[in-house]
Amino acid sequence: MKTWVFRVPPRIPATTIMIVLVAAGTAGCTGGGSPGSASMSALSDKALTSVRVAAIPTADLAGLYIAQNNGLFAQAGLHVTIEKIASSQAVITAQESGGVDIGAGSYIPYIAAEAGGAKFRILAEASTLGPDTRVLVTATDSAIDNVSQLAGKKIGVNGTNSIGTLLISELLTAHGISPAKVTFVTDQGGFPAMPANLAKGEYAAAFLAEPYVTVAGENYGESILADLDEGAASDFPIDGYVATQTWAAAHPQVVAAFVRAVEEGQAIAESNRLATESALGKSDSLKSAVTSLMSLPRYPVGPVNEARIQREATSMLQYGMLTDQVAAEVDNGSLVRSMIRGG
């Protein structure tokens, strides 16, 4: 019999197909230098003070929501509008056409797009894995109580070729199971719809992020089968703030102001759990029974860590999410480097 176990680390959460208005860019602010060179109180780039941000509903974006709720963006001279998307893949086309300024979500679709010739810039990191923040969950009446029993089964994920499929592939491989032995099913409703669809039997297990891990347990009695923050995936990079290189280069002071504000939010999220609970409760209309129990990821602060993002690109190549045509660029680090330093 499986039991539902909640582990609550002393940090804070974040969150949520739609689009977000945000005024931020990505010029050379995430490579080696500090992004905070522009004044928070006075932007000379007066033509752009509103920014569109597309955000996935997870606890990983606590820094974004705290920056919004605490007026940090406003202090930076920015008007940020946040709307929710099911997965980062849903917003890339909108970013390339100018419909969205910043995507807040998984790095994976951006790395894949970069490998295909697009030009994106990672402005800041949002989260890395923490215990029980990305998990596989099974229904309350499921007979599956071991990862090895997933062979031949359907697993629900919030996006095709996503961080979910990557982390699950790492887990299956560690248990001696080829990822080809399972069928990944993309739920178009994303994380918010997945606990209910798992309960209906649409798949044998579901990949969930907080706060939906806690929602699954509280509302449906669903159980954690496996924590994905282990082994080769421990402290794995999850979400970040990404813009096109064209947009970032056109608005360097906006980018710097955005990064400084969101990193202030990150620092609060990492050190003040109550502030995170409040921000996530407000952004996703979550009850305190959920926010007080949910596990939280880690919230990095400072320049984008190239080695950390490189782990993701290397794993993507390993599991066929990138083609062999870009293997050399992945192996020598130039693909990831171009997303951090430009070029």
Explain how this protein is built.
It is a single chain. Helix 1 crosses helix 9 (about 250-270) and helix 6 packs parallel to helix 7 (about 210-220). A 5-stranded mixed sheet has the order 2-1-3-10-4, sandwiched between helices. The termini are far apart. The chain is an alpha/beta fold and about 350 residues long. Helices cover about 35% and strands about 15% of the residues. The protein folds into 2 domains: about 50-130 and about 235-340, D-Maltodextrin-Binding Protein, domain 2 (3-Layer(aba) Sandwich); about 135-235, Periplasmic binding protein-like II (D-Maltodextrin-Binding Protein, domain 2, 3-Layer(aba) Sandwich), CATH 3.40.190. The radius of gyration is 19 Å and the shape is globular.
